[in-house]
DNA sequence: TTGGGG
């Protein structure tokens, strides 16, 4: 950490001490004074203050050199301008400070490529609102320049305002800031969870790739987000509704996703549906697919034993790019992910089922749903969420007759209904069993424990089972619309 | 002027 501290000491020496400072930038100076002072050669020199020091001079024009930690979206102000908010941090103020920009058109606003990029701000004003400090960029006399972050050695800004004049020490300070960023990447937060560790009814931050945004008819927006991990297994109510004929839902949205959208979803890891009741101004930017996002202070709950993310009134959406520290962290894990099988059963793959389809490799449900052909044979690892019928008496008569049993299967990537056809039923259950034996097998599949004397749990936890599935179509004129899944070559063990 | 974690 010594290396990280060194640049600041270097910078301290370059900066005049309080007593030497141009009086125009001292606390209490009239707002009209400028932070720029004429150098000996006549060119403007800019005195960069640490953010913490700048706060001592509210109302004065100051110059700052800091890293961008959060990127807001450009929107129309209530006046005539466009506005944009960035959060910036430097060594003196880890919590950072919000900077508000105004401009006649969006092209004049800073367009930050990635959090962790560096920004130089000339002649901005420190203001206070509700006891909190802000930086205001005034389009009449402020100017800015944006530089790439720590990975770059390029000293020219990739964007600067028309009036921006580079200062003598810009390159040096930029290099120091980049060195500091190596050890202090902005944006890593305590509350930041991965999808694999989300919990009901708590609030947390989530850094995710937004795969799609869908507006429901009632104005609710559904964001399909993903970080490569699996959401935790959910719990299912112990009481099965034997009267209900309608199958359990396969997804939270009303209508299934169009196939062209479905086929863009990744085959490994869970896609969380995040519901937003109002339009956060960043959401349209997410649809362009340039940015990852940090969802700050969001919550989630389980609905139909499926995870549902919810954007609260107090939630915020911040844009990140592929270069952001938190994103790089996730991409590294996704790219090196060897285990494609559900994270929850890596060390405890159940041996409840025997499968015959040995030649086939493991396939996730999403991989099959997005498979190029309607017919698909594969082996997968799933939990049995529900069964219809599930009572032994119904099962016996069904299996003896000519009808199917419908199972609802899920893995971290998707849910599907799969049918056990008459011919496969005896194989699946291991022969024509007594009602008691059938009940025992079905209960094991559904995660219903054997009769216990006391303290019967309210929820069940179905085991992971290996299972062979094949898909087929009912109608060749509508192959995808009539696609069905069928279990084969699978036997439930005693 | 606007905007200020809605």
Automatic annotation (TrEMBL):
CDD domains: hPOT1_OB1_like. GO terms for biological process: regulation of telomere maintenance via telomerase; telomere capping. Residues 48-182 form the Telomeric single stranded DNA binding POT1/Cdc13 domain. Residues 23-35 have a biased composition (Low complexity). Gene3D superfamilies: Nucleic acid-binding proteins (2.40.50.140). Keywords: Chromosome, DNA-binding, Telomere. It is found in: Chromosome, Telomere. InterPro entries: NA-bd_OB-fold, POT1, POT1A/B-like_OB, Telomer_end-bd_POT1/Cdc13. The keyword Endoplasmic reticulum does not apply. SMART domains: Telo_bind. This is Telomeric single stranded DNA binding POT1/Cdc13 domain-containing protein. It comes from Oryza meyeriana var. granulata. The lineage of its organism: Eukaryota, Viridiplantae, Streptophyta, Embryophyta, Tracheophyta.
């Amino acid at each position: 950490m010594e290396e990280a501290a060194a640049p600041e000491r270097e910078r301290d020496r370059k900066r005049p001490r309080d007593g030497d400072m141009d009086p125009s930038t001292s606390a209490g100076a009239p707002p009209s004074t400028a932070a720029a002072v004429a150098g000996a050669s006549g060119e403007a020199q800019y005195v960069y203050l640490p953010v913490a020091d700048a706060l001592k001079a509210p109302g004065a024009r100051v110059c700052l050199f800091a890293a961008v930690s959060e990127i807001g979206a450009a929107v129309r102000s209530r006046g005539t301008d466009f506005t944009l908010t960035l959060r910036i941090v430097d060594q003196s103020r880890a919590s950072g400070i919000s900077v508000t920009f105004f401009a006649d058109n969006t092209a004049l606003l800073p367009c930050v490529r990635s959090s962790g990029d560096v920004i130089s701000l000339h002649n901005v004003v420190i203001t206070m609102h509700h006891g909190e400090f802000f930086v205001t960029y005034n389009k009449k006399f402020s100017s800015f320049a944006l530089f790439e972050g720590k990975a770059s050695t390029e000293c020219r800004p990739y964007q600067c305002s028309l009036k921006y004049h580079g200062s003598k020490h810009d390159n040096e300070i930029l290099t120091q800031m980049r060195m500091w960023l190596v050890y202090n990447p902005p944006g890593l937060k305590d509350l930041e969870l991965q999808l694999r560790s989300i919990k009901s009814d708590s609030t947390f931050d989530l850094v995710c790739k937004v795969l799609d945004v869908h507006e429901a008819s009632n104005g609710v927006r559904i964001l399909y987000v993903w970080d490569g991990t699996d959401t935790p297994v959910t719990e299912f109510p112990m009481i099965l509704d034997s009267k209900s004929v309608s199958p359990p839902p396969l997804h939270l949205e009303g209508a299934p996703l169009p196939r062209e959208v479905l086929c863009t979803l990744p085959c490994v890891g869970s896609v969380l549906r995040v519901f937003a009741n109002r339009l956060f101004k960043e959401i349209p930017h997410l649809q362009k697919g340039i940015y990852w996002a940090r969802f700050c202070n969001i919550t989630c709950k389980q609905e139909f034993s499926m995870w549902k993310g919810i954007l609260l009134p107090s939630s915020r959406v911040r844009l990140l790019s592929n270069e952001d520290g938190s994103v790089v962290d996730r991409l590294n894990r996704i790219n090196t992910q060897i285990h494609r099988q559900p994270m929850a059963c890596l060390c405890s793959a159940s041996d409840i089922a025997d499968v015959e389809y040995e030649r086939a490799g493991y396939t996730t449900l999403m991989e099959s749903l997005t498979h190029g052909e309607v017919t698909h044979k594969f082996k997968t690892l799933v939990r049995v969420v529900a069964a219809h019928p599930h009572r032994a008496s119904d099962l016996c008569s069904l299996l003896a007759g000519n009808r199917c049993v419908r199972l609802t299967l899920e893995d971290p990537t998707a849910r599907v209904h799969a049918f056990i056809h008459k011919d496969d039923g005896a194989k699946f259950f291991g022969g024509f069993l007594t009602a008691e034996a059938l009940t025992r097998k079905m209960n094991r599949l559904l995660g219903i424990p054997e009769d216990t004397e006391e303290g019967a749990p309210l929820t069940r936890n179905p085991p992971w089972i290996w299972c062979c599935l094949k898909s087929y179509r009912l109608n060749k004129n509508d192959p995808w619309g009539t696609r069905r899944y069928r279990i084969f070559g699978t036997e439930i063990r005693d």
